[in-house]
Amino acid sequence: MQLVKAGTAIDFVGRRFKFMALSAIVILIGIAALLFRGGLNYGIDFAGGTLVQVRFSAATTSDAIRTALTGLDLGDCTIQKFEETDGLEFLIRVERSKADLVGISDDIGGKLAQTYGEGRVDIRRAEMVGPKVGSDLRRKGLLAIMYALAGILVYITVRFEFKFAVGAIAALAHDVLITVGIFALLNKEFNLSIIAALLAIIGYSLNDTIVVYDRIRENLKRAGRRSYVEVINTAINETLSRTILTSLTTMLVLLALFFIGGGVIHDFAFALIVGVVVGTYSSIFIASPIVIAMRDIKFFQPKTQKA
């Protein structure tokens, strides 16, 4: 299926400075959001505490649940409603507590049963993470992303050239920074599932970038008198149809997960939706322009060819 006609010559590379400036602005907004909010809104995985998912037989409200739990020493407690359940299902997140974390889920279940009645409250999930474990998971999650980027740098350098590797890493870092920035801006919960989403985004975006790089390498062999910029722009146009088709089909699956997958994977699906959009964008407007910028540096210019 060919969405883009053969011979299409959109000047993507010619607009690279405008789009790189746009990316810089979006990243700065994300950094500003992180500073303003004092960091990410870490979930139980990273912050430590207890998470209890409760389902009621009749609709209720967060305020009513909070009132019902008044007798418990829960410290900082966040109660979040699953929008798609019409007030039947809630997440109760206890970040810090003076009491021992062990048994809090049972205490919450018992206290709610006293207010709403026996058999009318169902504890569907209970998770507990200590603060030291949360800190360790946060560190390991960051290391997983760093190791992935380092491995990709080596792989692209071996398969192509170092300047291509720099372009790919810049694009992937761009995707991660924007996705994290949007989570900070919207104050969405950041947990282990989002780390998994970021790693998936890195893989998706890299695959898209490599397809473009392969076409650039093929076109360079038969470049003739065309300039380096023209060769790269042609490669982007020639792979544009494939890029759009891949992104659209992936997006259909992610939208289904986002809207009907349930509250547990809602943020995970949201992160992937953002990542697919940003990853497609960066493959076109970040990765290849960085290669051009690297080639303009004297150290990276081919010795047998004038720049």
- Unreliable stretches, pLDDT < 50, 5 or more residues? none
> Helical region count?
10
Structural class: alpha+beta
Largest sheet: 4 strands, antiparallel
Question: Which architecture of the largest domain per CATH?
Answer: Up-down Bundle
Q: Any idea of the CATH class of the largest domain?
A: Mainly Alpha
Kindly state the number of beta strands. Answer: 6
Mean residue pLDDT? 84
CATH fold field value of the largest domain: Multidrug efflux transporter AcrB transmembrane fold
Determine the N-to-C terminus distance. 37 Å
Radius of gyration: 24 Å
At the fourth level of CATH, the homologous superfamily of the largest domain is Multidrug efflux transporter AcrB transmembrane domain
Shape: elongated
Secondary-structure element sequence? Answer: HEHEHEEHEHHEHHHH
Strand order of the largest sheet: 3-4-2-5
Total domain modules: 2
User: Helicity, in percent?
Assistant: 55-70%
Strand content: 5-15%
Could you characterize what this model shows?
Helix content is 63%, strand content 10%. The protein has 307 residues and is of the alpha+beta class. It has a four-stranded antiparallel sheet. A two-stranded parallel ribbon has the order 1-6. Strand 3 and strand 4 (89-94) form a beta hairpin. Helix 1 packs across helix 6, helix 6 (162-186) packs antiparallel against helix 7 (192-221) and helix 9 (240-260) packs antiparallel against helix 10. The protein is elongated and about 80 Å long.
